[in-house]
Amino acid sequence: MITSFKDDFVALLNRRTIEYQVADNITRITTPLLDRNNDAIEVYIIKNGKQIKITDDGYIINDLDMSGLTIEKDTLRYKYLQNILANHGVELGENNELMVNADISNYSLKMYLLVQCMSKISDLYVLNKPSIKSLFNEDVKNYLITNDIRFIENPFFIGKSKLTTQFDFAIPRFKDAPERIIKVTSNITLNFARTTIFGWEDIKENRGKDSVLYVIIDDRNRSPSEEITIALNSYGIKPVEWTKIDDFKPELTA
After folding, report:
1. Residue 164 pLDDT class (50, 70, 90 cuts)
2. Regarding beta strands 51-55 and 98-102, do their DSSP bridges make them parallel or antiparallel, or are they unpaired?
3. pLDDT range class, residue 6, cuts 50, 70, 90
4. Which residues pair with 183 in a beta bridge?
5. What is the number of domains present in the chain?
6. Of 92, 126, 160, which marks where a domain is finished?
7. Do 105 and 213 reside in the same domain of the chain?
8. What is the CATH number of the domain that holds 90?
9. Domain residues for 194?
10. What is residue 66's predicted lDDT score, i.e. its pLDDT?
11. Which residue, among 203, 14, 40, has the nearest Cα to 122 in the 3D structure?
12. Given 88, 107, 126, which residue is the final one in a domain?
């Protein structure tokens, strides 16, 4: 017979929480909560006199990074991360560690908030590919805005086939500078390259012979293959790796 739902729930949490003494001043707590890999979330409690530091030792963010979800400063992903940290009172320390500082009076609450924060950040991985592409589009858009580059967003162009092709951005021609059209991808594949080449070949005669197409590629996790780069260059399309975007800044700002 159930006597108290709260007591039973707390008892369950207690049974599934494991405490292990790593060193004289370091204790590892294995919680019942799971991360995106269905592994138990663990934190380390480090005592230094009356001060207590609780940390994930960098596990959560480094795991996301190894899985292909890179979080860099000045990106929309980083803003999401900062919001989660602020909402839970958690700091981002060295080597990507998530941490809180506490004392004997509040360490249990601080640990609870840290574990909740770790779970929330781990869930960032479930962003599907369209969402990730949307985030990278925002990175590119912010770059254009920051560098005072005027652009049209999501332009449609009609080709000689009478089909309409959508691109991500277009920078209008100005004086001697040609029209610059931009396609953005967070996951460059040979199929994407083929589709882009077809769309470009279809519209470029209608855009003027000096119009240029740039394909901006998120290469922070995977660089484009030589095969893809050669294919794009063969049709006069300029592949631009995001980590080298500043090399093309003079062309985009002209």
Report:
1. confident
2. antiparallel
3. low
4. 215
5. 2
6. 126
7. no
8. 3.30.1460
9. 129-253
10. 83
11. 40
12. 126
Interatomic CA distance for residues 187 and 30, integer angstroms? 36
**How many angstroms separate the first and last alpha carbons of the chain?**
77
DSSP tag of 75: S
Q: Are the beta carbons of 182 and 224 closer than 8 angstroms? A: no
% the chain with pLDDT above 70? 93
Say if CB 222 and CB 145 are below 8 A apart: no
Three-state SS letters, 186-227? CCCCHHHHHHHHHHHHHHHHHHCCCCEEEEEECCCCCCCCHH
| 55, 71, 89, 154, 173 from 115: Cα distances, Å | 9, 20, 11, 40, 52
- What tens digit of pLDDT does each residue of 71-94 get? 877 777 788 889 889 988 999 988
Token couple for 241? 């790796």
Do 172 and 118 share a structural domain? no
Per-residue confidence (pLDDT) for residue 128, from 0 to 100: 47
pLDDT exceeds cutoff 90 at 53 = yes
Same domain, 104 and 160: no
Determine the average pLDDT of the residues in 35-39: 82
Q: Are residues 113 and 194 both part of a single domain? A: no
Cα(102)–Cα(115) distance, rounded to whole angstroms? Answer: 14
Mean pLDDT, rounded, for 127-136: 63
Rounded to two decimals, the pTM is 0.58
Looking at residue 207, which CATH number applies to its domain? Answer: 3.40.1350.10
**Do 114 and 168 belong together in one domain?**
no
Name the band, by pLDDT with cuts 50, 70 and 90, for residue 195. Answer: confident
